[in-house]
């Protein structure tokens, strides 16, 4: 047990470094990962299944009884992140259809699981973070295809039902399965929950290796546009993060809740976006999602570290 906890702490603490390192390896030797390229959907489904298993029913009920901050976070994410993503796609890549579609897709998928991890590190309200992520997961099968069809349809024809069903298979059904198993076999699941964090992180690594190795050719063929893509996704992540925090505090959200909303607003599940892009629009559309994955983890880690240090200073000052 202690070994598992130690491994989990090492992975969580240096998550951005692992992400960048694995991305570089997958890009440098993509053929080494041919055998796992078809496992992206499985890896993502595993993450959502484990989320369902580990979701605390008691904490979830507490947030549901006082849902205003969860609803605020959901509202900010689906307005600010979506609005910023659409603006960036139109301004930066109005003449590059697949990249513009990828930018919009990266901003219209549900919250990324790393938002929960960073909320915990930053001293934010984890129960709120998980609740918002769960609600996101429930509504995204409808919102993602609708928003993509509405705002990316001018770039590439968008088919609603194939995209909807794909999200249901990858996101909705695994999450529901995890919740049902937890409800039916609560005692057995409790013995397993200490492993869910490290298993989710390992599943994320599988997804990254699969996504990057799949997109390697598209990345190498479009190196000239990558600097602009990274500028665009940096704005795509940082603007919603800042706006989510400032607006939630302005509206009276407690500090811990505002920190959770910050990460929820700025970090999307770009591994899911990259998978959907490759399956529905082509590997070039996955490039913005891959770049966003690197940047949201990096910026998220920086923000979590800043808040963690601030939290320690406050705690030391009160002791």
Description:
There is one protein chain. The chain is mostly helical. It has helices at 2-13, 15-28, 40-54, 57-65, 68-93, 97-106, 114-121, 126-151, 160-184, 186-192, 196-221, 226-250, 255-266, 270-280, 283-318. Helix 3 runs antiparallel to helix 11 (196-221), helix 8 runs antiparallel to helix 9 and helix 9 packs across helix 10 (186-192). The model is unreliable at 312-319 (pLDDT under 50).
The end-to-end span amounts to: 32 Å
Share of β-strand residues: under 5%
User: How would you characterize the largest beta sheet?
Assistant: none
Radius of gyration, taken over Cα atoms and rounded to an integer in Å: 19 Å
Please state the average pLDDT score: 83
Number of DSSP helical runs: 15
Gross morphology is globular
Structural class label: mainly alpha
Q: What share of the residues lie within helices?
A: over 70%
SSE pattern: HHHHHHHHHHHHHHH
**Uncertain stretches:** 312-319
Beta-strand segment tally: 0
Jot down its keywords.
319 residues; 0% strand; disordered C terminus
Brief sketch in words of this structure:
The protein is an all-alpha fold and 319 residues long. The chain contains 15 helices and no strands.
Give the helices and strands, then pairings.
Elements: H1 2-13, H2 15-28, H3 40-54, H4 57-65, H5 68-93, H6 97-106, H7 114-121, H8 126-151, H9 160-184, H10 186-192, H11 196-221, H12 226-250, H13 255-266, H14 270-280, H15 283-318
């Amino acid at each position: 047990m202690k070994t598992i906890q130690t491994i989990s702490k090492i992975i969580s603490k240096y998550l951005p470094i692992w992400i960048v390192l694995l991305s570089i390896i997958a890009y440098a030797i993509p053929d080494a990962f041919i055998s796992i390229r078809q496992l992206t959907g499985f890896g993502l489904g595993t993450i959502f299944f484990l989320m369902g298993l580990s979701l605390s029913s008691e904490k979830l009920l507490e947030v549901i009884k006082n849902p205003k901050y969860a609803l605020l976070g959901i509202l900010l994410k689906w307005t600010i992140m979506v609005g910023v993503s659409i603006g960036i796609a139109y301004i930066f890549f109005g003449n590059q259809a697949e990249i513009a579609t990828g930018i919009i897709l990266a901003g219209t998928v549900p919250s990324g699981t790393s938002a929960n991890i960073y909320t915990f590190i930053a001293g934010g309200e984890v129960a709120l973070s998980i609740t918002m992520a769960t609600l996101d997961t429930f509504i995204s099968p409808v919102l993602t295809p609708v928003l993509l069809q509405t705002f990316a349809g001018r770039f590439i024809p968008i088919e609603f039902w194939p995209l909807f069903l794909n999200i249901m298979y990858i996101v909705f059904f695994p999450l529901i399965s995890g919740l049902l198993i937890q409800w039916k076999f609560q005692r057995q699941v409790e013995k397993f929950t200490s492993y869910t964090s490290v298993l989710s992180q390992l599943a994320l690594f599988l997804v990254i290796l699969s996504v990057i190795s799949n997109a390697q050719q598209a990345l190498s063929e479009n190196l000239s546009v990558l600097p602009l893509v990274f500028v665009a996704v940096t704005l795509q992540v940082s603007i919603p993060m800042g706006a989510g925090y400032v607006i939630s505090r302005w509206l009276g959200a407690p500090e811990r809740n505002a920190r959770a909303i910050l990460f929820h607003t700025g970090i999307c599940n770009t591994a899911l976006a990259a998978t959907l892009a490759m399956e529905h629009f082509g590997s070039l559309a996955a490039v913005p999602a891959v770049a966003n994955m690197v940047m949201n983890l990096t910026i998220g880690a920086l923000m979590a570290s800043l808040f963690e240090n601030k939290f320690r200073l406050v705690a030391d000052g009160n002791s």
